[in-house]
């Protein structure tokens, strides 16, 4: 069980590393936030599952932490992105659609 827990912990660490890489590589703030949120949510969950498998006395604490991460990470990311949008931080140059403003390039091309 400890070996399987180690595999989960390593997989979680890989996702956390990919989140950090996404923060560096993505072109604008909204893409960075998306990469950071999705990968850190999955990475943290995998790491905590691995911890619970390796140390059975931590199962309850890990489960509570996983629930907290599942609810708080996406909600806080959404709130930050919405606040950034209303503060006027622009989308990247390659963004195809601004649904909040109601302006999509696909709709303009077909009209």
Low-confidence stretches: none
- Spatial gap, N to C terminus: 60 Å
Largest sheet: 2 strands, antiparallel
Q: What do the pLDDT scores average to?
A: 85
Shape: elongated
Strand arrangement within the widest β-sheet reads 1-2
- How much of the residues is beta strand, in percent? under 5%
Number of helices: 4
The radius of gyration is 18 Å
Share of residues in helices: over 70%
Sequence of secondary-structure elements: HHHEEH
The class by helix and strand makeup works out as mainly alpha
Count of strand segments: 2
How many domain modules?
Answer: 1
SSE layout:
Layout: H1 2-25, H2 29-54, H3 59-86, E1 97-98, E2 103-104, H4 105-110
Antiparallel strand pairs: 1-2
Helix pairs in contact: 1-2, 2-3
Question: What do these coordinates show?
Answer:
The structure is a single chain. With 111 residues, the protein is mostly helical. It has one domain (2-110). It is built from 4 helices and 2 strands. The protein has helices at residues 2-25, 29-54, 59-86, 105-110, and strands at 97-98, 103-104. Strands 1-2 form a two-stranded antiparallel ribbon. Strand 1 (97-98) and strand 2 form a beta hairpin. Helix 2 (29-54) packs antiparallel against helix 3 (59-86). It is elongated, with a radius of gyration of 18 Å.
In short:
The chain has helices at 2-25, 29-54, 59-86, 105-110, and strands at residues 97-98, 103-104.
What key attributes describe this structure?
mainly alpha; 4 helices
